[in-house]
């Protein structure tokens, strides 16, 4: 049932174009507004929104915050469920979106029970039909990625993002222009992801190099900052290499001290307003002699002579670039772990769903 692949992780990585394409044809093309509770997002005055999640799902939450604030003009708080449970919640939000692949993560469920007591409406985004989170929620949006066997979340993450985009599209607050832009971007995305999957040469040679490193730093800005966090999580999880993700602008506030000739930096770039600031940060890193790996849209001239490895990826609308960049980083982690002979689908000390606090 690994479908000819060596591991579930790589099989699940390859399922992503299909999963994204299928959801495009059902919900987005028909323009169905399948949200009821999410109609809260359209209320006037704007509702207060909280997003809760753990691990990889939390990274999807960070991207959701950025998108909701940018495209809907609403402000959003995102918290790790495990932290949320340990402080007083003074002004309960009208709506909480809980993102959990398994729907059984103890910290997320506890947070849901607390919020229910405060009368907050709960929207769950989950991959498992009938899970506990869906039973606690007022409304559930399924990610439809199918069972994810590999402990490291891959296809469930991009499927979560896809649901978040659908949520935005269902909201009457979204301007027509952005609706059209996002719809088109999502329609073009599956073949761009396929393009990454069909072109793994640079990723594999870069993975060979990373396998020799004892620490890696990931950086991104804006929409791709959470992707830097996700890339670092994937690498430490499956390849056991200490990896840290940072907002690029934060490097100079401390982490730059870690940068040296033996600490490579993986930079996740988009073609957006953060691009020039990213290049400035890359130059600062270069001066310190650190090997630079850049993941960027094809034909980014700014990187010539700057990056040691360039992993070019297909051009997509920057709004959906996190999904594409995530796939690149999943592959990078996978091949690095493969190089090191790690038990990729079942990393030590980890369980697929964390049902204890
Ligand atoms: C990382 C990973 C974990 C989960 C986290 C939350 O690859 O799989 O970080 O994302 O345990 O799990 P769910 O989404 O099931 O609540």
Automatic annotation (TrEMBL):
Alphabetical keyword list: Aminotransferase, Cytoplasm, Glutamine amidotransferase, Repeat, Transferase
Subcellular localization(s) per the UniProt record: Cytoplasm
Enzyme class: transferase
Major localisation: cytoplasm
Biological process (GO), any one: UDP-N-acetylglucosamine metabolic process
GO cellular component: cytoplasm
Annotated catalytic residues: 352 (for fru-6p isomerization activity)
One GO MF term: carbohydrate derivative binding
Residue intervals of the SIS domain: 39-180, 206-347
E.C. number(s) listed in UniProt: 2.6.1.16
Subunit structure: Homodimer.
Function: Catalyzes the first step in hexosamine metabolism, converting fructose-6P into glucosamine-6P using glutamine as a nitrogen source.
Name of this protein: Glutamine--fructose-6-phosphate aminotransferase [isomerizing]
Gene that this polypeptide is encoded by: glmS
């Amino acid at each position: 049932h690994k479908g000819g692949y060596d591991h579930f992780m790589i099989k699940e990585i390859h399922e992503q174009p299909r999963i994204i394409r299928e959801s495009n044809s059902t919900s987005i093309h028909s323009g169905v507004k399948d949200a009821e509770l999410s109609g809260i997002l359209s209320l006037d005055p704007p509702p207060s929104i909280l997003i809760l999640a753990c691990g990889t799902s939390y990274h999807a939450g960070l991207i959701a915050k950025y998108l909701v604030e940018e495209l809907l003009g609403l402000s959003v708080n995102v918290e790790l469920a495990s932290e949320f449970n340990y402080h007083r919640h003074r002004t309960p939000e009208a709506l909480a979106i809980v993102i959990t692949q398994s729907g059984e993560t103890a910290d997320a469920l506890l947070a849901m029970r607390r919020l229910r007591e405060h009368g907050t409406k709960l929207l769950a985004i989950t991959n498992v039909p009938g899970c506990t989170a869906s039973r606690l929620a007022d409304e559930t949006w399924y990610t439809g990625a199918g069972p994810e066997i590999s402990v490291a979340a891959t296809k469930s993450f991009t499927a979560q993002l896809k649901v978040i985009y659908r949520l935005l599209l269902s909201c009457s607050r979204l301007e027509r222009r952005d609706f059209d832009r996002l719809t088109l971007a999502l329609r073009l995305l599956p073949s761009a992801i396929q393009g990454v999957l069909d072109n793994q040469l640079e990723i594999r040679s870069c993975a060979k190099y990373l396998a020799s490193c004892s620490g890696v730093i990931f950086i991104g800005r804006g929409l791709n900052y959470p992707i830097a966090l996700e890339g670092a999580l994937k690498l430490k999880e499956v390849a056991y290499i200490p990896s840290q993700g940072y907002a690029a602008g934060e490097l100079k506030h401390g982490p730059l001290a870690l940068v040296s000739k033996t600490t490579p930096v993986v930079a996740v770039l988009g073609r957006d307003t953060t691009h020039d600031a990213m290049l400035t940060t890359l130059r600062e890193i270069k001066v310190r002699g650190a090997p630079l790996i850049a993941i960027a849209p094809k034909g980014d001239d700014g990187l010539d002579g700057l990056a040691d490895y360039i992993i070019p990826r297909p051009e997509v609308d920057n709004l959906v670039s996190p999904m594409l960049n995530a796939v690149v980083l999943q592959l990078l982690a996978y091949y690095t772990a493969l190089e090191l002979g790690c038990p990729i689908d079942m990393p030590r000390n980890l369980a697929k769903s964390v049902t204890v606090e």
